[in-house]
Structures are given as C-alpha cells and as structure tokens.
C-alpha cells in the first residue's frame, strides 16, 4: 500500500478525478511541450459527460495558462481503458508537436498511455486489513503506531497540515453564505445550520446540527472550488473532518489525538483504495461516500479508545450500509446529492460507532469481505450510475 500522503491530497475541488487529476496532467504537458503555443484537449467519457459541472475545463485551462487551449467535449467515443480520459495535442503554429493520451485515475493522480506510470512506492507491505490487524495484535500496536512504523515520525507534520487545511475548509464554509455556481441555484446551508446550534436545544439535536453544519461547510467549499483535503476524494471531503471537529470539541482533544485518528482512518482508506476503489467513476458513490464514512467511523473508534476489532467493526458497518450507492450528480455538479450526502454519512459514522460499541464481538462480516463486495458491486453497476450523470437523480431531477 502507498503512503497516506497519496491518500490525503490538498488541492482545489470539486473533484479529485475531474479537477485535480486533469490539472496535474496539464501541468506535466506544459513541461513535455515547452514550445507549444496552443493546445487542443479532448475530454472523453465521464470527463466529457460531467466535466462542465466539475469545472474540468477550468482546471485544464488554468494549468496550461498562459498557453491558449481549445477544449473538445467528446461524449460519444468509447473509453475502454479508463472512464476519465484526456487527449492532448500540442501545436506550434500549424505544426503538431505531439499527442498524449492521459487517464485521470482518481485521487488527483493520472497515467500517460504508453509511458511507465509513476508508481508511488508501496511503503506498507501488508495489503489486506486482516494482515494489518494481525501484525498490530502480535506487536501490540495501535493502527496509528503501525502507520508511524512505516511512514516515519514525519507523518505527524503531514497529518497536522492535513488537519489544519480541514479545519480551514470548515471555517470558510461556515462563514460563507449565498448560492453555489453552476446553475442549480443551490443555497449554501452550513452557515444557517451552524447559527441554529443554540444552547437550549436538546444536546443530541445540537450535536447533530454541529456535525451536519461542518460536513456541509467542507462540502460546499469543495463545490465552490475551494482548497480542501481529499478524504478520500473531493466529493466526499466533508465526512471525516466533520466528525473529527465534532469529537475534538466534545472531548476537548489536542490536535495530536486528531492526527492519530487521521492515521487510523488512513489505514481504512488505503485498504479500500488498494483492494477496491475510491472512485465514483469506477464504483459509484459507495466508493466515495461509503469509504469516507468507513474512515470516519474508524477515526471515531480510535478517538474513543476502542480496541482493534471494534475499530474494524465500526469501519465495516459504515461501509456495508453504503453498498450499492450510486453516483448520479445532478448536472455533473458536485452539489446534489453530494453535499447533503456528506452530512448524512457523517451522522452514519457516529451510528456505526455506536453499533460497534453496543454489539462488539457479534460481528459476522470482516472488513476485507465488505471491501471486496463493494468492488464487485461497483463493477456491476451500469455506467449511468458511475459519475456520468445519465441516470438516477441526475436523470429525474426536475421531473415532477
Ligand atoms: S454522487 Fe457521490 S461519488 Fe458521485 S460525485 Fe457526488 S459525492 Fe462523488
């Protein structure tokens, strides 16, 4: 498995596969063709179908700037290698300098066809959760100690930075008001929700409102193209920070404890990324929001001092009950259902924690089993439910 620095990525929303990946690929193309005086970039597959809403064209144009770019939206051609395909043609005057086909594979990463992919080192030798848990039990390690063992102590400054960006994205989102761009006229709700957290409200309702407002805040910042942390993706970026901030405030925890929870959540996200997928285009929203909920539940379990089996149970419950969740963003915008879905998943992570606490040791399904099931389910989903905005809510929105 790769480093957690490959999982938690800091960048502009609203989509790791549709904005961060294309932006990173475009920056590379600028260095591959330094003499180019114009580019033609063809967006295919999911990038063509939902790229406008995801601001893919903006990301490409900005990254290639000041070289002018013509964007071609190709919704028809097949994309047999990967649903997120970009084709770059570089020109100097009338002369074509070269062509590259690129695949945005999720998490802000990309590969170039025919070129050896830059594969980040696999710094964790274990691949599945059971191996990790066994190793930790044998050596009396918590999951965050397992992370520190392979990543070195420098992981803590990285996770501290991640936590600061997460807090910033929530703070900005709680402050902001008005309507998100893109044409759906979606009103930002985080500020309103947060301002309704009143002291005399029943404690449990007030806590729910706080968690939801934080999840809305981070997700609305993502939808607005703000700087966020993928956790594990842009579209699902609100779940983990919302539950962490809630728990930090509730228990008065120092940042160092939050970073340990981020490391634990990272182990869960890494196992899913390695053995299944965290991409909505590949496996539907279960791979994004389901994974985020699972990571959040594990983080909460860590903060509550639960043992390794209970952490696994919380993560498993959280993912299991997202199985089959489709990706159907209305108009290709990461707004409906994405923003509200982050808030619901944050609440579900808390529910999963409670079930793991109440029913410890009655569990029948392992985390590895539910990860495998999620992947198989995702591969069986029709493409219209995998970030193409051709089915589900995206199709029926506006139909009475
Ligand atoms: S529906 Fe889920 S997977 Fe699809 S864009 Fe929204 S958050 Fe991402």
Report how far apart the termini are.
47 Å
- Give me the count of strands: 7
- Give me the secondary-structure category: alpha+beta
Q: What is the beta-strand fraction?
A: 5-15%
Number of structurally distinct domains: 2
**Rg from C-alpha positions?**
21 Å
Q: H/E element string? A: EHEHHEEEEHHHHHEHHHHHHHH
Spans with pLDDT under 50 lasting ≥5 residues? none
Spatial order of the strands forming the largest sheet: 3-2-4-5-6
Quick rundown:
By secondary structure, the chain is of the alpha+beta class. It has helices at 16-32, 46-54, 56-64, 129-138, 143-151, 155-175, 190-195, 203-223, 239-251, 255-275, 280-283, 285-303, 308-320, 338-358, 367-380, 393-396, and strands at residues 10-12, 38-45, 69-74, 84-92, 95-106, 109-112, 227-229. The protein binds iron/sulfur cluster (SF4).
What does this structure look like?
With 400 residues, the chain is of the alpha+beta class. The chain folds into 2 domains: 13-111, 2-Layer Sandwich (60s Ribosomal Protein L30, Chain: A); 129-396, no CATH class. It has helices spanning 16-32, 46-54, 56-64, 129-138, 143-151, 155-175, 190-195, 203-223, 239-251, 255-275, 280-283, 285-303, 308-320, 338-358, 367-380, 393-396, and strands at 10-12, 38-45, 69-74, 84-92, 95-106, 109-112, 227-229. Strands 3-2-4-5-6 form a 5-stranded mixed beta sheet. The longest helix is centred in the middle third of the chain and has 21 residues, at 155-175. The termini are far apart. The model has no long low-confidence stretch (mean pLDDT 94). Bound molecules: iron/sulfur cluster. The site of iron/sulfur cluster (SF4) has 13 residues, from helix 12 and helix 14.
């Amino acid at each position: 498995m790769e480093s957690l620095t490959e999982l938690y990525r800091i960048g502009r929303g609203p989509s790791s596969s549709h904005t961060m990946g294309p932006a990173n690929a475009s920056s590379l193309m600028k260095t591959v063709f330094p003499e180019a005086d114009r580019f033609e970039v063809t967006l295919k597959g999911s990038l063509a179908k939902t790229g406008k809403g995801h601001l893919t064209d903006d990301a490409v144009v900005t990254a290639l700037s000041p070289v002018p770019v013509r964007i071609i939206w190709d919704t028809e051609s097949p994309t047999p290698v990967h649903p997120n395909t970009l084709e770059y043609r570089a020109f100097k005057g009338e002369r074509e300098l070269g062509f590259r086909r690129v695949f945005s594979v999720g998490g802000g990463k990309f590969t170039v066809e025919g070129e050896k992919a830059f594969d980040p080192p696999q710094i964790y030798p274990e691949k599945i959760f059971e191996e990790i848990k066994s190793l930790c039990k044998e050596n009396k390690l918590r999951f965050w100690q397992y992370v520190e063992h392979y990543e070195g102590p420098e992981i803590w400054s990285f996770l501290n930075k991640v936590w600061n960006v997460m807090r910033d994205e929530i703070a900005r989102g709680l402050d902001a008001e008005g309507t998100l761009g893109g044409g759906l006229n979606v009103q930002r709700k985080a500020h309103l929700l947060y301002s309704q957290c009143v002291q005399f409200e029943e404690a449990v309702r007030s806590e729910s409102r706080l968690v939801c407002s934080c999840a809305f805040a981070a997700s609305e910042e993502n939808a607005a193209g703000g700087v966020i942390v993928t956790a594990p993706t842009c579209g699902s970026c609100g779940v983990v920070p919302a539950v962490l901030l809630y728990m930090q405030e509730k228990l008065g925890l120092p940042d160092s404890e939050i970073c340990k929870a981020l490391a634990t959540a990272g182990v869960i996200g890494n196992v899913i990324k390695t053995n299944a997928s965290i991409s909505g285009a590949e496996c539907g929203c279960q791979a994004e929001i389901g994974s985020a909920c699972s990571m959040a539940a594990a983080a909460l379990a860590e903060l509550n001092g639960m043992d390794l089996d209970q952490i696994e149970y919380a993560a498993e419950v959280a993912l299991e009950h997202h199985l089959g969740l489709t990706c159907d963003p209305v108009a290709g915008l990461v707004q409906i259902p994405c923003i509200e879905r982050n808030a619901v998943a944050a609440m579900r992570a808390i529910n999963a924690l409670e079930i793991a606490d109440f029913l410890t040791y009655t569990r029948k399904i392992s985390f590895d089993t539910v990860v495998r099931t999620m992947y198989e389910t995702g591969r069986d989903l029709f493409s219209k439910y995998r970030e193409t905005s051709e089915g589900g809510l995206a199709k029926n929105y506006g139909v009475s």
